[in-house]
Amino acid sequence: MLLDSAARLCFRALPPDRRGAPSHSGLDLVHSLTASVDSLDSALDAAATAVTDAGRLLSSIKVPEEEPKARARRSRTRTNAAFKEVVENVRTVSTDEVEYDSEHHFVNSLALCDTLVQTLTLLAVVCHITIGISARSCDFIVAIVGKMIRLAMGTASSNLQPNPKQEDILKQLPTSLEGALRRFKLDPKTVVYAVGIAFYQPWVEYDVATCHPDYRLKNPAKEIPQIRRLHLQLTQPVLPHDQTDEAMPPADSLAPIAITTEKLRGNLKLSKVSALRFVAHSLGIDLTGITGNLKKPYIDRLVSWRYMKPPYR
Q1: How far apart are CA 198 and CA 311, in angstroms?
Q2: Looking at the record's lineage, which domain of life comes first (predicted)?
């Protein structure tokens, strides 16, 4: 055995003068250890056999499948819990009014500038807005006048350099049309979007509680914005059917530019069928005979409705 071999090797490793006959007690210990190892191997083999049998027994047991109703009930429970969590999170959002800093409307920064700076700023604004000179030409005018002012200030001194007060004035001069417009607050921080409409139409907003099931939206989050866009497109000025182009209106005209029939159709095609169907239904258009999910029948009826309204404002 392994322990007997180890004992013999240890005995051979001893010096010759220390070698002697192995004692009976040492041999008995070796034999007892050998017996213990053999019994441990037997116990491990028995344990492995028991685990294998238990595994086979467990694999033979079939777990009954969950009934569809129970599975659906559990799915609804998880969905309701998630929805409740979302609602709670929404309730915690602050509904306080949003504060808007309007202090910049009451700050007259141009009044603090030198008179020469005010004059050049006014010149740039008048050239662009009143006279109608392009932005690049106005930039050239501002730059060349600023250069002339600098040269004029330099000629008044012995070293052809402006003095500290003149340097302060030169730093205030606008260097472009954009800077002049900003001084006059003609480059606003609030952007105003204007859409020309030809007539006023009282639109019906989408409400799932009152909407007929046949006209309900499949994805309200995406299709409600499309409905509002359709409202704007259907109130735009349009040209007659046989007219494909229109000359640009005069510069002093406030009338919105009209679009062609093809342009109107192209705009309507960008919306989904469900949005087109709801808008047509809300306008009281007869949708009899329309089947399927094609856009063209709804677009045809919406265009026909549009041409029964005033084309221009």
Answers
A1: 6
A2: Eukaryota
Size (the chain), residues:
313
* DSSP for residue 129: I
Q: Give the start-to-end residue ranges of the domains of the chain.
A: 108-183, 213-306
What's the N-to-C CA distance of the chain in angstroms? 111
Cα–Cα distance measured from residue 230 to residue 225, given in angstroms and rounded to the nearest whole number:
9
Interacting residues of 238 by C-beta distance below 8 A, sequence separation 6+: 198, 258, 259, 260, 261, 264, 306, 307, 311
How far, CA to CA in Å, does 148 sit from each of 114, 115, 138, 174, 278?
A: 17, 16, 15, 13, 65
Q: Which amino acid is at 48?
A: A
268-310 pLDDT, tens digit each: 999 999 999 999 999 999 998 888 889 999 999 999 999 888 7
Give the pLDDT confidence score for residue 39 in this predicted structure: 74
Mind listing the pLDDT tens digit for each residue in 80-105? 777 677 666 655 555 556 666 666 66
Tokens for 71? 């599975």
| Rounded Cα–Cα distance for residues 232 and 294 (Å) | 22
Give the residues of the chain that fall short of pLDDT 50: 1-3, 6, 9, 13-14, 18-19, 21-23, 190-195, 313
| Rounded CA separation 88/82 (Å) | 10
Residues 6+ apart with CB under 8 A from 178: 187
Q: Helices (DSSP H) in the chain: which residue ranges?
A: 2-13, 24-60, 68-91, 115-125, 135-155, 164-172, 177-183, 220-234, 261-268, 273-282, 296-306
pTM of structure: 0.39
Closest by CA to 299, choosing from 233, 218, 247, is 233
